[in-house]
Design a protein that fits this description.
181 residues, alpha+beta, six-stranded mixed beta sheet, two-stranded antiparallel ribbon, 39% helix
Length: 181
């Protein structure tokens, strides 16, 4: 079989798999979407990603490292001291899209303090790659005059189903936005 004919056979097989709903094709598409959205986040000047943790030192699991790894096609790394230590996690495409749109659609300048790194409750959606925490909104720290209620409403409109902030136990200094499992 010629190389040209072989390429056509492969193209037809991939197209047929896509039409049949093949999970391999969908998984590849989701990974491509994750990586592309992560690259957009890295290029967006209104989104700041933490390069350190408040509760420990591990450069490979910071918010910046999580997005950088995802942009490169890898899973985001959890922290060694969390409930699910040293694991690679695929970030949720909807969560990544929500994070991006908080800036591009809603025009918030945000600082993301944690994604899958850090320490969270044992059942936290952070460890599933479905949540992020925001420490600053438009240059103001959450809990010190930042417009957290409006940002929380925007997260809900973007698909987050678990949104916590000042007034919720353990969230007086950050907004937590999580997408469904």
């Amino acid at each position: 079989m010629s190389a040209h004919r072989f390429a056509r056979v492969i193209a037809v097989a991939v197209a047929a798999a896509a039409l049949s709903g093949s999970t391999a094709v969908h998984a590849t598409a989701a990974a491509d979407t994750r990586a592309a959205t992560a690259r957009q986040i890295l290029r967006t000047s209104g989104i700041s990603l933490a390069v350190a943790h408040q509760g420990g030192t591990h450069a490979g699991s910071t918010a910046k490292a999580n997005i950088t790894d995802t942009a490169g096609g890898k899973g985001a790394l959890t922290s060694p001291w969390g409930h699910k230590p040293n694991r690679r996690v695929a970030l949720d495409p909807g969560m990544l899209n929500g994070l991006l749109k908080l800036n591009t659609q809603y025009k918030y300048r945000i600082a993301v303090s944690e994604i899958v790194g850090g320490k969270h409750s044992a059942t936290s959606r952070h460890y599933a790659g479905k949540a992020f925490d925001i420490s600053h909104i438009n240059g103001k720290h959450v809990g010190s005059g930042a417009p957290h209620k409006a940002l929380m409403a925007a997260c809900r409109k973007l698909g987050a189903t678990e949104v916590l902030g000042p007034g919720n136990a353990g969230h007086s200094r950050h907004v937590h936005c999580a997408w469904p499992r």
